[in-house]
Specification:
This protein is about 15% helix and about 35% strand. By secondary structure, the protein is of the alpha+beta class. It has one domain: Sandwich (Jelly Rolls), CATH 2.60.120. Strand 9 and strand 10 form a beta hairpin. Helix 4 crosses helix 5. About 10% of the residues have low confidence. Belongs to the asaB hydroxylase/desaturase family.
């Protein structure tokens, strides 16, 4: 039995006119627990995403979307699954130049399926993962930037970028001038993580939260300082606004896809200037989806999960 998945059950769900059984897992996820004394940003803040610092281990229900994936839409729920085909084979993802030359255009095509009115797409980079998920939250985080698929899945509940964080990373990737131009154009700007397994997922799947179950009080903006001195801003997540482990239970609605294949693309919204008004309006809607990887019971000897995520900003 995995350390982070404890039991399985089912719950009845009305799907169309039929009542069907929606598979449910009980899993433990690492949420954020604010320290009593606030800390200044440092280059070690990645520990809040991948490591054991300031953690709140929470038992949640994880629901399988398999067979009902079309029920979830990105502007309604903060994530969406798409059926896709890629000309890339698994070995191609060992080479950054192939990813940029061959895979990025495919990603753009998939994004335009959701947002055909897109005028510009800016790629912020990619991460290829292929290491064992850390499930012992008492240990320090392993190195996250090892080459050749050495990056492990991220177990901490998080959102990749705030709205400002997206512009900061855009400036890092393409220069401050372009970031300023995108701001000045005043168009709707969205940031995504485009996530796809390289082989069928047998262990350590990625879970996503229905953004309608998330409230402003659950989210904490995290100012980041990277080792090269560049700055960023992403989001760590509290379990329904709680500041103590004994506070009210978490009500976030978690979902994942069982047996996710390379044809099952997942697009996660991380920020949206036209929708995620929680960043500017107290109590505003959260349109982004927190997410985290988790362990499945009995899969410890299955092949390591291999996946790629491409992060990008689009202008509408």
């Amino acid at each position: 039995m995995s350390q982070t998945a404890t039991q399985t059950s089912t719950s009845s769900k009305v799907h169309g006119s039929l009542a069907v059984e929606a598979p449910e897992l009980r899993v433990k996820l690492a949420y954020y627990l604010p320290p009593e004394v606030p800390r200044a940003p440092s280059i070690y803040d990645l520990e809040l995403i991948n490591g054991s610092r300031d953690q709140d281990i929470v038992d949640v229900a994880m629901h399988d979307v398999r067979g009902r994936e079309d029920d979830f839409k990105i502007d309604t729920h903060g994530f969406q699954y798409l059926k896709v085909n890629s000309a890339m084979v698994k070995e191609d993802f060992d080479y950054d130049e192939r990813i940029e030359e061959k895979y990025f255009p495919e990603v753009e095509e998939w994004i335009r399926r959701l947002y055909p009115q897109t005028t510009k797409i800016h790629h912020l980079g990619h991460i290829v993962r292929g290491a064992v998920l850390q499930t012992d939250f008492t240990k320090p985080a392993p190195a996250w930037n090892m080459p050749n698929r050495g990056i492990a899945p991220a177990p901490r509940v998080h959102i990749d970028f705030t709205r400002e964080g997206g512009f900061l990373v855009l400036a890092q990737a393409f220069g401050q001038g372009l970031s300023d131009e995108v701001r000045a154009r005043g168009k709707r700007v969205l940031c995504f993580s485009v996530w796809r397994p390289l082989t069928t997922v047998r262990r350590d799947p990625l879970g996503v939260v229905d953004c309608n179950s998330v409230h402003e009080a659950d989210l904490v903006k995290l100012a980041r300082i990277f080792p090269d001195g560049a700055r960023g801003e992403n989001v760590v997540v509290k379990a329904n606004g709680r500041t103590l482990p004994s506070s009210r239970p978490c009500g976030h609605k978690w979902h994942y896809m069982s047996g996710q294949t390379p044809q099952d693309l997942l697009i996660i919204k991380t920020s949206d200037t036209g929708d995620c008004d929680w960043e500017t309006i107290p109590g505003g809607r959260v349109g982004s989806s927190p997410h985290a990887s988790f362990a499945l019971p009995g899969t410890e000897k299955e092949p390591i999960r291999e996946s790629i995520e491409v992060r990008c900003i689009i202008e509408l």
